Amino acid sequence: MTILVTGATGNLGRLVIASLLERGADPQSIVAGVRDVAKAQDLGVPVARLDYSDPASITAALDGVDSVLLISGSEVGQRVAQHKAVIDAAKDAGVAKFVYTSAPKATTSDLVLAPEHKATEELIQASGLPSVILRNNWYTENYAADFARAAETGVLASGAGDGRVASANRKDFAEAAAVVLLEDGHIGEVYELGGDVAWSYDDLAAAISEVSGREVSYQPLTADEQRDGLLAAGLDEGTAGFVVALDSGIRSGALADTDGTLARLIGRPTTPLIDGLRAIA
Length: 281
Ligand SMILES: NC(=O)c1ccc[n+]([C@@H]2O[C@H](COP(=O)([O-])OP(=O)(O)OC[C@H]3O[C@@H](n4cnc5c(N)ncnc54)[C@H](OP(=O)(O)O)[C@@H]3O)[C@@H](O)[C@H]2O)c1
Known about the structure:
It contains eleven helices and eleven strands.
């Protein structure tokens, strides 16, 4: 059985390859799909050039492949067309398992990032591919910049209000992808994957205090206060609006649910927030 992992030079992709190998996969049974082959020499598995915007490269990379992990692209706004190119090529190649990294409750969420994931899930569904959807909650690693700022200033400022986030480490999500790829079954499942604990921003401030050694307090911001602060810090209107919209989604609970599915899949508790922050620090 041959497994193609797209985005394999990214943070998650590298961890998925490592998790597949840790779980005993033959390196020769894995293909790292990468847009820049020069960045992939240390992966320890065969490499194929695969650019989401170059359908011929996708078709070539799928040669002899049974299972695909499509790691969602990072070029926001272009992703539906890019993902469609991978779905179409996988359908033509007749792959037996198509796994996609999506977002929490992608088809019903009002999270600003959800629409591209919703559209991708719908394309997968319409394709008839035997699929597994991994709706990944936030990576704890997303909070590296907040950690650094809060450790320096003593303030964690956010527009997330009382919203909670069931984050886990990228490694946890990567292991889940490896399990789903290596085990028989899982076809047709839509897994909502999150950390075991949905923490609040007060919890996050307390955890940063503990790890950094500096007392940090949480300062909730209104959307306007947050936007003004981001603009004053030099962000452009579009980026500031995007960050405000993300936090608004968190405030309304878009990332708050957790049901233990991730821990069950990987066979261990997810990485606690405090340990994720220690790794960041
Ligand atoms: N759940 C979360 O908290 C969260 C946070 C951030 C992002 N995400 C999503 O999860 C994905 C994986 O996360 P990550 O941390 O691994 O992100 P990442 O480190 O930015 O990796 C993204 C990967 O996508 C590849 N890529 C981008 N455009 C491509 C294209 N046109 N053709 C082929 N490959 C392309 C990149 O290739 P290069 O290595 O050549 O750049 C990279 O390997 C992201 O792309 C994003 O969709 C989720």
